[in-house]
Amino acid sequence: EVQLVESGGGLVQPGGSLRLSCAASGFTFSTYAMYWVRQAPGKGLEYVSAISNNGGSTYYANSVRGRFTISRDNSKKMLYLQVGTLRIEDMAVYYCAREGGGVVPLDYWGQGTLVTVSS
Amino acid sequence: EIVLTQSPGTLSLSPGERATLSCRASQSVSSNYLAWYQQKPGQAPRLLIFRASTRATGIPDRFSGSGSGTDFTLTISRLEPEDFAVYYCQQYGNSLTFGGGTEVEIK
Question: Are the beta carbons of B90 and A50 separated by less than 8 Å?
Answer without folding.
Answer: no
